[in-house]
Structure formats: C-alpha cells, structure tokens
Amino acid sequence: MSDIKKVVLAYSGGLDTSIILKWLQDTYGCEVVTFTADIGQGEEVEPARAKAEAMGVKEIYIEDLREDFARDYVFPMFRANAVYEGEYLLGTSIARPLIAKRLVEIARETGADAIAHGATGKGNDQVRFELGAYALMPDVRIIAPWREWDLNSREKLMAYAEQHGIPVDFKKGRKSPYSMDANLLHISYEGGILEDPWAEPEEDMWRWTVSPEKAPDAPRYIELTFEKGDVVAIDGEPMSPATVMETLNTLGGEHGIGRDDIVENRYVGMKSRGCYETPAGTILLKAHRAMESLTLDREVAHLKDELMPRYATLVYNGYWWSPEREMLQQMIDASQETVNGVVRLKLYKGNVIVVGRQSDTDSLFDASIATFEEDEGAYDQKDAEGFIKLNALRLRIRAKRHPAAE
After folding, report:
1. Measured distance CA(314)–CA(124) in Å, rounded
2. Per the residue annotation, which of 16, 38, 113, 230 is the catalytic one?
3. Could you read off the pLDDT of 46-84 as tens digits, one per residue?
4. Fold topology of 6-66+92-177
C-alpha cells in the first residue's frame, strides 16, 4: 500500500463516498483527489467541494458533464434502440463509461497512482467502472473499498462516520429506504421493500413522475424533429441534447410516463429487483422507432433489431469501450443518415402514442403503391402470385415428401 501516494476518487459527497475518502486517507496514507460529475442527477454538486475541503482534499474536480453525457453516450445508445432484457433503458449503465473516462483522465493529469470508486462487490457498477478504466488505461490500479473493508452494513458505516467526525446528511438512526441513482436519463430505486419482488412500490417513492391516475385528463401533443437519428428540436424549437432530455423528463413526468418495475439479471450472476423512472428515454425510444419505421429500409431495420440485444448487453455489462461495441456503433450510425424528419406524439396518462410521422427528404413510404384505392399501375397485383409460389416451393416439396397428418 505504501507505493500508492495519490488516488482519484469518484466522489458524490454522500455518506458512502465521504467514508471512503477518509478510509483511503487512513488505510493507504495517500493523498486523495476527488472527482464529482454533474450528469443531471438533479442535486447540487457544489456542496461536495466544501465537504472535500473539510477533509483536507487539495485537488477537487467538479464538472458539468450533462451535455457530454447526453450527446456522446445517451444519444448514440438511443440510435440503437437499446433495451436490456426487453424492459430496462440502461439509465445507470450508460453513465458509467463517462465517469470511468474522466477518472483515468484526471489520474493522468494529476499523476495519481490509482483510482477508486464506491461500487459494491455485489453490483454491476464495479464491473462497468473497472472495465472502462482498464480499456482506457491498461495499467491503472483500482481500489474498490467495498471489496476490502469490513464496513458491510449501514450501522457500521454510521459508526465509522461518527468515530471520524464525518457529517451525515440524514438523522442518526434513520435508515434511507432505497438505494438511488439519478442522471439525465433516469432515476433508479433498489433496496427496502423492493427486495420483495411481490411488494408493490410505495407511491411516495416516485420522485419524477405523477401516477398515471393523477396525470392530466387532457393529452399533451409534442413534435420531435430528428436529424441523423438524434432529436434536435421539440415543437420546432432547436435544443441541445441535454436540454432535450431535461424538457422530455419534465413533460413525461407531468403525464405519468416512464415508470418501470423490473427483475433483471445482473452481470455478476444474481437477479435484482429495481424500479426506474425514465420519462425522456421512454419518449425518445418510441419516437425514434417511429422515425425509423418511415425512413429505414426493411432489412436494415430488421438487422438493427437483431443486433440490438447484443448492443444493449454490451452497455449493461460495461463494454462501452470494447471494439465490438465501437464496431456496432459505426454500423448503427451509418444507418441513421436517413433518419430525418418529424414525429408527432400524444402524451396521455402514462402512455406515449405516436399519432404522426413525416420526412420530406427520406421517407420510403409511397402512398401511390400502398393505397387501397386505384394505384394507376404503380403495383401489379398479378406479380404477387409468382412471388408466393416461389416462396412456397420448398414448403410444397417438403409436404409432398412428408404429408402432414390429417
């Protein structure tokens, strides 16, 4: 341990990372550099500076990374329509590669010997942080206190905080009911009564969304403008990626959109029950698929759908910086060159309903062919007979050889 002189810590200023900061100072006898990222969690990050200073930290990094997060991570992921196990929109997963990237960059800038994080030994985040760090800095040394110390309960953490004079943000003896993580894409809830998969979440748990039952009785119509697969305007007003996310979170939350209750398979092997609020992501996914339905070739769209579960699993398991994810991203981004136009949506009591889509430049929808009215020769219906017979040929040959039982 004596050869580690300086460590960069991913630091939120909360109880766990404040304890980790002190533990690193005492256990490793090292200088600690703190890194706090604003990725849209909805809480002030500046108070972390005062807490770090009070604990003797000299080098403090506090950075607004909301635009980086939305532009370089969330939007590329949504071009892929990525959903893990059919439900999870990867809100926590997609934030980890950005944090890992800045941790190793700061380690280089400050000459640190190692990086540290507060992820537990049971969760996915330890894998995501560390795979990302190793991909970007192969020889990096990583300290994961939850895998080293014996502070394995909330009571022990509280006792350590009291012993070392670490300020605690909630009243002594009062247990926080949930473990939460938030950013521009979502807020997640784990622990407490959610550890029983049969228990319904308490209504006062949800922070971003009203219940669908209490959502407005009048629907809200919005129009999303896409350029190369990304939303660039809402109702005709140009917006940056982070502003798009913030606006859709507000609108979706007001109409009860984006709640989910999932039992998922963690990469480390266990099943975990979590609840999520992802208003902007729910709206983006629905709108993006609608835009693609109009502008993507059929086989391109189907190939994307076949590859999407693999892409989503790579993100979930922490392989954002892997060559296979980067290869898939190049293919996905190439497919988005024609995903341009406007999608009109109706937000109503927890639902996102597509009510219109148009593209003046890239629509593949030809009304003269698709019409049920007279098509003036644009499509010769007689051609369908030969098409069907050719596609049925192998089935007919098989049926003659192996007649179906009557």
Report:
1. 12
2. 16
3. 999 999 999 999 999 999 999 999 999 999 999 999 999
4. Rossmann fold (3.40.50)
Per residue in 57-81, is it b (16+ CB within 10 Å) or e — as a string?
bebbbbeebbbbbbeebbbbbbbbb
72 is catalytic: no
Burial level of 214, CB count in 10 A (0-12/13-18/19+)? exposed
Contact 127, 160 (CB under 8 A): no
Domain 180-358 is of which CATH architecture? Alpha-Beta Complex (3.90)
**Up-side HSE of residue 253: CA atoms within 13 Å toward CB?**
17
CA-wise closest residue to 182 among 245, 113, 262: 245
Q: Where in the chain is the domain with CATH 3.90.1260.10?
A: 180-358
User: Which one of 49, 71, 179, 181 is the catalytic residue?
Assistant: 179
Q: Name the segment(s) of the chain with CATH classification 3.40.50.620.
A: 6-66+92-177
What pTM does this model have? 0.94
Which residues make beta-bridge pairs with 263? 273
125 is catalytic: yes
The verdict on whether 96 is a catalytic residue reads yes
In the set 66, 79, 96, 128, the catalytic residue is: 96
The per-residue pLDDT for range 161-205, each reduced to its tens digit, is 999 988 765 444 445 578 899 999 999 999 999 999 999 999 999
Nearest CA to 242 out of 98, 102, 40, 46 is that of: 40
- According to DSSP, the β-strands at 271-277 and 237-238 are unpaired
266 is catalytic: no
Catalytic residue among 79, 125, 230, 325: 125
Yes or no: say if 30 and 59 are a contact pair by the CB < 8 Å rule: no
